[in-house]
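By way of example, we now present a protein record of this kind:
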Amino acid sequence: MQVNKIKLALGLVAALPMVAFAAADQEAAMKDSNNWVHPRGQHNNNGYSALAQINKGNVKNLKAAWTFATGVNRGHEGSPVVVGNMMYVHTAFPNNVYALDLNDNQKIVWSYFPKQDPSVQAVLCCDNVSRGLGYGDGKIYLQQNDGMLVALDAKTGAKVWD
């Protein structure tokens, strides 16, 4: 058990420079209010958008423009992440991830289907949901239900590391 704690501590220390760079990239993307690069928009977690196209006077005119079905009929608790013209959505177990091009009729640019042992669902609390994706350093970060953290290239969906 002691060896595992040491490995975890060393892994966290080794990851600190990468986390700092990813945070800087995320901060830069957050300066554009058209992006939604954090599960609640900004680090303050208020879920508020500074965009002004929708207001008290025109909100009653809103209608659905399009929908996207993930094919997973369980809870979807994490909000989409939007960076530039790409929207990234994810599912509850099995934690599939989709990149949708918002400038091309929401075309699926890439998808990621992780392989996990289905027995992990038996030990999950409060359904088998995920609270959201992360973005930074040109990567989409997925915390799988089995505890594995995965970094996907935001442009291609290729697994960079886990």
